[in-house]
Amino acid sequence: MLLQLQRGIIYGPIRSRRLGASLGINLMPNKCKLCSFNCVYCHYGPTKRLAVDLVDFHDDLPALDDVVKAVDRAVRSKTAFAYLTFSGNGEPTLYPWFPELVDEVVRLRDRYRPEVRVALLSNSSGLVFGDVRDAVSKIDLPVFKLDAGTEKKWKAINRPDKDVDFCEMVDSLTALENIYVQTVLIDGDPGNIADEDLEAYFEKLNRIRPIEAHLYSIDRPVPNTRISLVPPAKLQEIAQRGQKPTGVKMKAFYDE
Predict the structure, then answer these.
(1) Beta strand 186-188 with 227-229: parallel, antiparallel or unpaired?
(2) Are the C-beta atoms of 71 and 105 separated by less than 8 Å?
(3) pLDDT, position 1
(4) Is residue 185 classed as helix, strand or coil in its secondary structure?
(5) What contacts 176, CB < 8 A, 6 or more positions away?
(6) Element (H, E) at 157
(7) Residues of the chain above pLDDT 90, percent
(8) Which domains are seen in the chain, by residue range?
């Protein structure tokens, strides 16, 4: 069964294999997934509204003031969490007021929960906007998706909006410092674990030079029944194989 969409601005805490207890910040509508990608493996199901420019969807998005108030209540609460994470029902960096919101979240965190880190889980498509790139530099743990090393494979797996350009996205990732890359590896059709796919992926990682690359596979039901998970041993093998040609520390994450 696919995951249900998040029904509010703040959700969780959710136990993450990487972040531990993470309190999510959902900037997208609560009735549909609004995203610039329609990934074959997304555990929320198909993207009903595929877009990179959200100007036509402003009325469906939570107001900036409402988000700030929700975060304020969360950081003042007694709920225990290690991360405040921009994630949710779509791509958070496409939220029209994302840069202003990052400033507010960091301010509230510093005042009430200085021990908490701010994280971002992004598909990388919003990095073409300069103000988004500036905002990313203020986030403690910025994590960006890169599931393929070629445009053809990227389109097959992530099925992006027509206005998202693969080369621009990779160039934007390359221009950033102190970021993390997250990659979902899948077998089947389409898959991204063939030798030629991995070689192209390693080449892009070598260009981007993230602090770390985090490798995952699917662990929940997905919309596409032609794909399957990559076993933990294979994830570890790929992580070890990729460190030498990329010069990047690679970690495999999976359920024990």
Answers:
(1) antiparallel
(2) yes
(3) 64
(4) coil
(5) 127, 133, 136, 137, 142
(6) helix 151-158
(7) 87
(8) 10-252 (3.20.20.70)
Helix 166-175 to helix 195-208 angle, to the nearest 10 degrees?
40
Backbone φ and ψ of 119, nearest 5°? -120, 160
Q: The dihedral of CA 219, 126, 181, 235: what is its sign? A: positive
215 in Cβ contact with 183 (< 8 Å): yes
Indicate if the pLDDT at residue 30 is higher than 70.
Answer: yes
The model's pTM is 0.95
* Over residues 28-41, mean pLDDT: 93
**CA–CA separation, 52 and 163 (whole Å):** 7
Span 114-134, pLDDT tens digits: 999 999 999 999 999 999 999
Which amino acid is located at 62 in the chain? P
State residue 39's pLDDT score: 97
Residue 147 near residue 160, CB atoms below 8 Å: no
In the numeric block, which tokens belong to residue 167?
């080369």
**Contact call for residues 45 and 33 (beta carbons, < 8 A):** yes
Higher pLDDT pick, 103 / 223: 103
| DSSP character at residue 40 | T
What is the spatial distance between Cα 248 and Cα 256, in angstroms, rounded to a whole number?
Answer: 24
Strand bridging mode 180-184 / 141-145: parallel
User: Would you state the pLDDT for residue 32?
Assistant: 87
Length of the chain: 256
What's the distance, CA 34 to chain centroid?
Answer: 14
